[in-house]
Amino acid sequence: MARSLLRWRLSSPVPPKLRDSMICSDCLKLDxxxxxxxxxxxxxxxxxxxSGKPDLTDLTHPHTWYPVARRKKRNIFLHVxxxxxxxxxNALKSLETSSSGVYCGPLRLLAWEVAQRLNRANVPCNLxxxxxxxxxxxxxxxSVTVEMADVTSEYQCAVIDEIQMVGCRTRGFSxxxxxxGIASDELxxxxxxxxxxxxxxxxxxxxxxxxxxxxxxxxxxxxxKYPLGSFSDIRKGDCIVTFxxxxxxxxxxxxxxxxxxxxxxxxxxxxxxxxxxxxxxxNDESSEFDVLVASDAIGMGLNLNISRIIFSTMKKFDGVCxxxxxxxxxxxxxxxxxxxxxxxxxxxxxxxxxxxxxxLHSSLESSSPLIERAGLFPTFDLLSLYSRLxxxxxxxxxxxxxxxxxxxxxxxxIADYEEILKVAAVVDELxxxxxxxxxxxxxxxxxxxxxxxxxxxxxxxxxxKKGIVQLREIFTPGRLQVPKSQNSLKELESVHKVLxxxxxxxxxxEDSFPDCELASSQKAICSLLIEEFLERLGWQRQLKGNxxxxxxxxxxxxxxxxxxxxxPQVLVDSQIELTKD
Length: 581
Ligand SMILES: Nc1ncnc2c1ncn2[C@@H]1O[C@H](COP(=O)(O)OP(=O)(O)OP(=O)(O)O)[C@@H](O)[C@H]1O
Fold this sequence. Notes:
8-stranded mixed sheet, 4 domains, disordered C terminus, 6-stranded parallel sheet
């Protein structure tokens, strides 16, 4: 065994988190010809070639990339059912009683919630996301965002939440990696029944034992036969759903102008901390913010006491075109009404327009279409090996080759490289090594956001030029202010994304991105300023002129040492122009 171990080594020195696959070093010496080497029941990657040189773009055996998991016969429990049926609750009970374990969720909010829950239950639990690492002494449990799942450690119990996201165009590959790679005796998968046949097929080759547990909704959900009627019929606990920031603020104004309610807002580009605070304010019985206006960002990750979901539209712009909402989207959003054990245990759902009701009703009665394929992305080892054989190819070309030539089994689809290719095009212009380029490519940047894309370009250019990126060289801390309009709000949300990206990079290249603390505190300030804007953007408050009574005032926030340190001038600018929209 010792000798075989020696024969196997990683193809390149990469950080442990990326060591997903192993390449046979003998094959490398032999110019990767046919290899018969076997280790721990796994064949060398090159044996998948029957003749000639291996096609490294062949991604048909991804289960072989995870040798630690393959050494186990895992007991897999698939908890499937509608939202609010107790799937996660049951999976987490197993995690809580295990001797070691990991929770993998799709959102930082979910990872935070689970870490808090375990720590409260006296199970020390680390929190690890792309941008934060809170390690607890002696912890044998971790709560992580799925991209951070460690596929080299062994656990007694693991949970992957929202497993139907294996089919997600952009993030599916991270779920596939966790599904195939987590080395745990027990693996609990929670999600939509639509993912069951695919997961069963994918796991056929792993030798794991699979048990499916079906769940029913814990509280009733009633689709109403009538539409909203008028905005004066809005009541406490309602959540109006729409899909653009502009619409969210329009609807907020329409509700608040009736003089009866104030609205919290939740949408994707708000910082997660801000989303949580808005949700808390909405849930808080004593708060005036008793109505929620939100996008589909409420579908996952937030505990919300919603009585009735009201769809303002059944169409959504998905980055390419405006299309009808899909059945799973409608079910996921509608399912947020009526939370088990909350003040509104019976949920209701309706639309603003009567003509949208048929689509709502038919969707809620239908089962979600089966998920047919899971996302996949080559490991860094594969990319690196390919690059050694094609030394002139840039990362953009390498990825294109994988896209074009990948011989995929019907169970997998190649991850949507569109965003990744945009970054590859930027970093290929710079004198950077493959690993650095790879890191920039998998960073959480939104290249459709102009400011965020500029931020990434600057970081990559400065890093290539000097090897170190001081935050102050490209960002002047003292300039942040409470937004005065929706445009400046949008800008501040983008600045938050850039700072978030800096923090993400600093976790991976600590010496080269040394200002993690400064970036984190600036991020927190962005969130505070955005929250201040949202709280003051109350039309009823404007009419009553009671800004001064705002208990969560900017003045108070400015007392915090963080604000005093970086933002003395924030105190000066305490007036805000309400948007004219
Ligand atoms: N047996 C139980 N006892 C007490 N509370 C429960 C129980 N089962 C579920 N709950 C509570 O009901 C709510 C919904 O449960 P849970 O989040 O597990 O549902 P889910 O099916 O995973 O929903 P989603 O798909 O939205 O994540 C949670 O607040 C959870 O704490």
